[in-house]
Specification:
This protein has 8 helices and 5 strands. Helix content is 50%, strand content 14%. It is of the alpha+beta class and 264 residues long. 17% of the residues are buried. The two termini are 51 Å apart.
Amino acid sequence: MPNKQLRAVVAIAAFMAGSACGAQQPAGSAPGPAGERGPDPRVQGLEEELGAAKRELEALKSESEQLRKSETELKVKADEAEALQKKLTEVVGKFGDVTTEDGMVRVELIDKILFPVGEADLTDNGREVLAQVGAALKDIEDKQVWVQGHTDDSPIVIRKPKKGEEAKAKKGDKNAKDAKADPKAAKGEAPPEPNDAVLPFVTNWELSAARALTVVHYLQDEAKIDPSRLAAVAFGQYRPSSKSKAKNRRIEIVLYPRAKLAPK
């Protein structure tokens, strides 16, 4: 029992004992005139302590009810997060991991399932995986869906152009030569071999951003997820999760409690 409640009980007992003693006057004593007897200060003090103890007891009861309510709500949310994690784990399967932390659900998808090396276009397997993930996310309307792009720290590699890019590149070279003569050709030197290599992304920042946006567009356009729930975030190489480069090349789909945005 709390100390204040114990004091209140003692005060009540003392009050009752004092009342009983007052009811039994010693023999031979004569009561004074009624007008000369004021309230006993001890009784007043006990009554004040009793009132304060009652108020504190009511406050403790209210606080206890709030705690029970909060515990119930937390348990419900924990159960929902566990069920969601289980559902997404079944969907993702061997293509990634699903974890929960502080009310967040994090889906990690390895990059080689979703994208070709160094590119931001989805593979056929990537589309199949995202279709299943998107179907699971569409039913969870109380969560924000943040798609985070991550890469390893390897520099961007120059690649050969795809079909269609080659003709465009050569046309650009021809226009450039027409606009300005090659100084080596003017001196009678052989011009250098044309370089038709393409640098698709300048740094890993651009690559991670492009991949995150690709997934966001797929979830909006194909999975039909409300775009107000979606966001694309790029971390480049600067948030590694492992010493393994393969694990650092990943897409993370993080589910947060949905914020209620008031209209302006």
